[in-house]
Every structure is written in C-alpha cells, then in structure tokens.
C-alpha cells in the first residue's frame, strides 16, 4: 500500500501562540503536514523562494509586509500555494479585496481552531472556503445585487438543470466539499467535478460561491 501523500502547509501569523495553536490542531489530522511557519510577510516571501507548500494559511495583519502584500507578490506567479486568509475582521470589503488578488478562502480567526482543517482540505481540493459568517455576508451582498437582470435569467437556467445537478447544487450551498458530495450521492469525485463545472457554465457564475448564492437566492436550501 502506497504512503499517504500529505497536504503540506505553511502558517504565517505575527503571533507565535496562534501558530502553535494551529499546529496543534493540524497535528491531529494524518492528511496534513506543517512544513514551515513565518512571523511576518517578508519571511513568507523569502521562505517560498526556496521552499514549497500546497497551502498557505496567511494572516492579514503582519509586520514588514502584510497579508495583502504577500497575496500581491503571489498574484504574478504561476506556481503558488492555495491560500487561506486569516483575519480578526470579516468585513465584506476586505473579503472581496483578498479574493480579487488571489485568496482561495477566508477564515475569521475566532473560527480558526474548529474550521482550519476543513478550510485547508477544501482549498487544496481546488474549491473556495469561507467561514459561515463570511459566506452569509457574501450571499446577502450578491443576492440583492443586480436583481432585475437575474430574475429574467433564473427560470431559464432552472429548467436546464438535471435532477443530479440540482442535488449537487443543494449540497454545495450547504458547504459540502467534493469528496463529501461524492460520498453522499455515491458517485466519484471526478463525476462531482464534471457536474460542478456544468452548473457553473449553465448558471453563468464564476465559482462555487456563485452556485451557493444562486441556490440561496432561489430558496433551494
């Protein structure tokens, strides 16, 4: 039996106590390996010049170079880690800003202990992850925006969705990841991915968050 390939994680935060706390949580999961840590943004950038990780857990407020600066540094690179942003503030403007410059997930620090493993696995799987409060804000923000044009589109797209796609859409909106959806519906991860891409195309959204917004807006969950 082949050796399990672990998800390599780097943690960046200006408080060593938080880094140690996250490390302690991650050590309990056999699929994750913490390969490095940094106390400021400058060290993060330097570390990645000669090292690699699959996922970077990144604090926004750090000395020398902040999290925004680190994201901007990575935005020009083709080979970069998936990035989960940590912040004490879940202001929607900040969430939108970090997503725009390359973050794959956003986790409020108060949720970090209980949700960090799920966040790392979700972004490593190519999906976006948001702590619950943040996701609710995103849904509220976008479900009220551009309402008239969306109303004209909704009926057309609903009729083109298959029953299987509808089941998957509902589970995405409930924050199930690809593997969990596959287990729930007894289908392969690749099949889930194919349906997810078809949903994104049919509903003319950009990602899984767009699918969740659509589902909530149309009261499918």
UniProtKB/TrEMBL annotation:
InterPro entries (UniProt xref): CheY-like_superfamily, NreC/VraR/RcsB-like_REC, Sig_transdc_resp-reg_C-effctor, Sig_transdc_resp-reg_receiver, Tscrpt_reg_LuxR_C, WalR-like
The reply on keyword Amino-acid biosynthesis is no
**Any Pfam family the entry gives:** Response_reg
What residues does the HTH luxR-type domain cover?
154-219
Q: Which residues form the signal peptide?
A: none
4-aspartylphosphate-modified residues are where? 59
SUPFAM superfamilies xref list: C-terminal effector domain of the bipartite response regulators, CheY-like
Q: Which UniProt keywords apply?
A: DNA-binding, Phosphoprotein
* Response regulatory domain: residues covered: 8-124
Would you tell me the protein name for this molecule?
A: Response regulator transcription factor
